[in-house]
Amino acid sequence: MSGEMDKPLISLHLVDSDSSLAKVPDEAPKVGILGSGDFARSLATRLVGSGFKVVVGSRNPKRTAGLFPSAAQVTFQEEAVSSPEVIFVAVFREHYASLCSLSEQLVGKILVDVSNPTEQEHLQHRESNAEYLASLFPTCTVVKAFNVISAWTLQAGPRDGNRQVPICSDQPEAKRAVSEMALAMGFMPVDMGSLASAREVEAMPLRLLPAWKVPTLLALGLFVCFYAYNFVRDVLQPYMQESQNKFFKLPVSVVNTTLPCVAYVLLSLVYLPGVLAAALQLQRGTKYQRFPDWLDHWLQHRKQIGLLSFFCAALHALYSFCLPLRRAHRYDLVNLAVKQVLANKSHLWVEEEVWRMEIYLSLGVLALGTLSLLAVTSLPSIANSLNWREFSFVRMPRCVATSSAGNTDSGTRRPEFQSQDPHLRALHHQTSFLGSQSFCCSLVPVSTPYGH
Ligand code: NAP
């Protein structure tokens, strides 16, 4: 483990011949870390790699020193907090009180709270860990930061998906100092305001795909309904009426018949809220009125619903490819051939059937291709690389492919929201971004609570 932790990260000039992190220049800013656990080790490695001088405070420095990069100084807690102005508190909340003996040395310093509560702790405590730390050390400035970054990410280096570091504090200067450190370490600081936001910041790692919950339940619900219907139609009815045993169809055939039904309904649910929103605006005669909450939530979930539709369509394609591989299909073919021989027919060719299948397959492939294009352009990295015109251009084929869903979107630019209130403007900006990231923008391209 220590070998891994000693690997060079950013500053190659800090690496000595045996690939461990070597001495940091004396003029480098000094940062303290309290605790010597997983997070403290990764943080120390990254800070050293980013050009900082690091001093680690441990209750037992002898035991832990070997786990840290050689450039980091590992010492007792009292000594570690004496000189740095910024000190990371890499210990759990329940151990904060044990640090109170350091109160005198910590006067006027910046304490960075990196802790994450468990779900139970989050519900149990009304005040955030950072606010609790601030109450224990009233002479210090507490900054909440880095809790959304795992020890692994710190060690491996920031990657695209997890570069953002939400930061909050009651002291703008302290916040700025920690933000600069985050930038130096390769992360992207995001100002979350005062320390009162710490509870919200601490809740971030506890979330489990909140935007996907309702769309996934919806897709599952639709799947169950359509599956039940197809089961009754294709399996139960033949069994009841003609005593035919077709239960073998349950794992593949019925699933394959169900998937496109779910995909179609989900796709129509991507477009329907846009149409409803447009109708509502026309009926109200204004775009400056809030949409009802249910419609607003629906509009904001279009991307997820669209991607689930694509997922079902892709599964349908895969299942369809597998259909001829089944034993049942081979037996059917052989039986058909035998029947043909018995009926003394040498050439079976129904022109209409042939054409129908060719067109059916071709349209299916084209529809899946179009849907794939839409799914790909909904990826933030791709959507961000397109300007509005390019984005609209890529979305054009959708109008043809889904005209049955009532979409007449011409890809016109949305009107700019003009408000004197900076909060409203920021909200508009944020929600406009969400709208543009939508799987497919709707007839009225808004997903904001305001119908502008
Ligand atoms: P850990 O490996 O268990 O380390 C905790 C450290 O706390 C110990 O190594 C210990 O160091 C120190 N400590 C100080 N006073 C203590 C006391 N009275 N009793 C026990 N230990 C005490 O935990 P961790 O994973 O590094 O997490 C540390 C903090 O970082 C937590 O608040 C956690 O929520 C946060 N965090 C962790 C991660 C992660 O990926 N691990 C990610 C984000 C945030 P000494 O024995 O040297 O004093």
TrEMBL record:
Residues 30-117 form the Pyrroline-5-carboxylate reductase catalytic N-terminal domain. Residues 261-394 form the Ferric oxidoreductase domain. Keywords: Copper, Endosome, FAD, Flavoprotein, Heme, Ion transport, Iron, Iron transport, Membrane, Metal-binding, Oxidoreductase, Transmembrane, Transmembrane helix, Transport. It is a multi-pass membrane protein. It is found in: Endosome membrane. GO terms for biological process: copper ion import; iron ion transport. Its cofactor is heme b; FAD. The chain crosses the membrane at residues 214-232, 252-280, 305-326, 359-379. GO terms for cellular component: endosome membrane; plasma membrane. GO terms for molecular function: cupric reductase (NADH) activity; ferric-chelate reductase (NADPH) activity; metal ion binding. It catalyses: 2 Cu(+) + NADP(+) + H(+) = 2 Cu(2+) + NADPH; 2 Fe(2+) + NADP(+) + H(+) = 2 Fe(3+) + NADPH. Its main location: membrane. InterPro entries: Fe3_Rdtase_TM_dom, NAD(P)-bd_dom_sf, P5C_Rdtase_cat_N, STEAP_metalloreductase. Belongs to the STEAP family. This is STEAP3 metalloreductase.
